[in-house]
């Protein structure tokens, strides 16, 4: 299990390769990557991501551990960036390895659902005309009830 | 104890962290003390349903006891991922 909270970009291919390397017990590897999406208006200059150092790592570790307790997983990877990102930049990735794909898919979805509303990150969208904190969506909170 | 603020709570109050001398028994009591200090606190804490609280880096709630707590953090609902 690896949890990384970092300002610098990550190499999606290298991370996925390293995660999968030398593993013959897990027949399924799922990766999910979150990307900074431009606004519908095309005006997004910067997405600034703030976090709570210390609590962030604890929350991510707890979420990943809960996923490991719940599904049959060989390994879990979570990388989440903070700081100033541009549209198209990769914000975060999760990877799960499991003997079978159902566990790998479900655990990846679980990680994403919990990461959205239980890991202390806050996004701010900055355009030429101003800056707005991204509001949490009710549907993200509702998504947790399915687990 | 250390009191931390994040995102728009930090912006509204105007600082990320401060030391607070308090005998507040619960988070709600601490919020009341802060609100009584200055308008910027009252503005930030106007709608508690829009806020979350963590005690020693674990999510908690406004009724929780502050006994033994060293670090309190206030922030809006999280938007990770």
Describe this structure in words.
The complex is a heterodimer of chains A (147) and B (81). By secondary structure, chain A is α+β, with helices and mostly antiparallel strands. Helices cover 33% and strands 33% of the residues of chain A. Chain A is built from 4 helices and 8 strands. Chain A has helices spanning 12-20, 55-70, 101-118, 138-143, and strands spanning 2-6, 28-35, 46-51, 75-81, 83-85, 90-98, 121-127, 130-133. A 4-stranded mixed beta sheet of chain A has the order 1-4-6-2, sandwiched between helices. A 4-stranded antiparallel beta sheet of chain A has the order 5-3-7-8, with no helix packed on it. In chain A, 33% of the residues are buried. The model of chain A has no long low-confidence stretch (mean pLDDT 96). Chain B has one domain: Ubiquitin-like (UB roll) (Roll). Chain B has 3 helices and 5 strands; from the N terminus they run βαβααβββ. Chain B has helices spanning 7-13, 27-37, 39-44, and strands spanning 2-5, 17-19, 52-55, 58-60, 71-75. The mean pLDDT of chain B is 97. The chains are: A alpha+beta (147), B alpha+beta (81). At the A-B interface, helix 2, helix 3 and strand 7 of A face loops of B.
């Amino acid at each position: 299990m690896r949890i990384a909270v970092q300002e610098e970009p990550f190499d999606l291919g290298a991370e996925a390769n390293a995660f999968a390397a030398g593993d013959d017990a897990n027949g399924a590897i799922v990766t999910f990557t979150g990307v900074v999406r431009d606004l519908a208006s095309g005006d997004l200059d910067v997405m600034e991501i703030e976090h709570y150092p210390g609590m962030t790592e604890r929350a991510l570790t707890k979420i990943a551990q809960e996923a490991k307790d719940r599904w049959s997983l060989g390994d879990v990877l979570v990388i989440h960036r903070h700081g100033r990102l541009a549209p198209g930049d990769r914000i975060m990735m999760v990877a799960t390895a499991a003997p079978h794909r159902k566990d790998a898919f479900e655990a990846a979805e679980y990680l994403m659902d919990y990461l959205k509303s239980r890991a202390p990150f806050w996004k701010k969208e900055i355009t030429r005309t101003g800056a707005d904190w991204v509001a949490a969506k009710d549907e993200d909170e509702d998504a947790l009830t399915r687990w | 104890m250390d009191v931390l603020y994040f995102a728009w709570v930090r912006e509204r109050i105007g600082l990320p962290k401060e030391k607070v001398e308090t005998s507040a028994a619960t988070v709600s009591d601490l919020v009341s003390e802060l609100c009584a200090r200055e308008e910027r606190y009252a503005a930030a804490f106007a709608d508690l349903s829009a806020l979350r609280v963590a005690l020693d880096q674990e999510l908690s709630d406004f009724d929780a006891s502050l006994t033994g707590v060293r670090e309190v953090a206030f922030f809006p609902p999280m938007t990770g991922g």
